[in-house]
Amino acid sequence: MKLPISYYQTNDVVYLAKDLLGKFLITNIEGLVTGGMIVETEAYAGIHDLASHAYGDRKTNRTRVMYREGGVSYIYLCYGIHHLFNVVTGKLDVPHAVLIRGIFPMFGLKTMIKRTGKNKADYTISNGPGKLTKAMGISLLYNGALLTDDTIWIEDRRIRIDPFNIQATRRIGVDYAGSDAFLPYRFLLNHKKTHT
DNA sequence: TGTAGGATCCACT
DNA sequence: GTGGATCCTACAG
User: Which of residues 151-170 of A touch strand C (CB under 7 A)?
Assistant: First the structure.
């Protein structure tokens, strides 16, 4: 069920961003398990993508983990407040990443409620990149963590996704990226029918 | 060493 | 639909 390391090591990051829809992101942090189905992702395509932190082959302390072999996490702080969780993909020295932007909460709902201070765990508890890390306990501590370990991992639960239910749009918040801001690298899973 | 701005969210109106 | 929270990163000097 847990995705093997080889899954992450293709260089087709756009394909992976799409393929991760319907997979399950699960964390076991501080002894508490939370998780849910991935419903929104964005692809960041290495050194030629103006929106990517690794654009222009920028190797810095922050971006270093993106250059590792696919299958580790890349977590960074955004706007000084939000931790954003990315899946590093691709081969060694190819800094591709998929930003996980939304999950549908399914496991550990009580824990999510406690962590976020909300009063119910409906889809809004984890429908944004900063919200899902908060609900799932993901922080900078786990930057570079192996996704084949038992802290943060992704499972294939054989959910079949009809391509008809995948919507592709431009990415959010990357207006600075020139023409790359318009690439259709954001993928949303239309899952209204499974839960209402 | 200093500073501008950011892969966001929420509480307002 | 707007703005404040809040702090790290990158880059200029």
Answer: none
C chain positions with any atom within 7 Å of a protein CB: 5-11
pTM, rounded to two decimals: 0.94
A14-43: per-residue pLDDT in tens? 999 999 999 999 999 999 999 999 999 999
Instruction: For residues A163 and A181, give the distance between their C-alpha atoms in angstroms, rounded to a whole number.
Output: 23
Q: How far apart are CA A100 and CA A118, in angstroms?
A: 21
Compute the half-sphere exposure of residue A115: CA atoms within 13 Å on the CB side of its CA: 23
Query: Which of residues 3-32 of A have CB within 7 Å of strand B?
Result: none
Return d(Cα A180, Cα A196) in angstroms, integer: 35
A117: left (phi over 0), alpha (psi -120 to 50) or beta: left
Amino acid at A130: G
Cβ neighbourhood burial of A50 (10 Å; 0-12, 13-18, 19+): middle
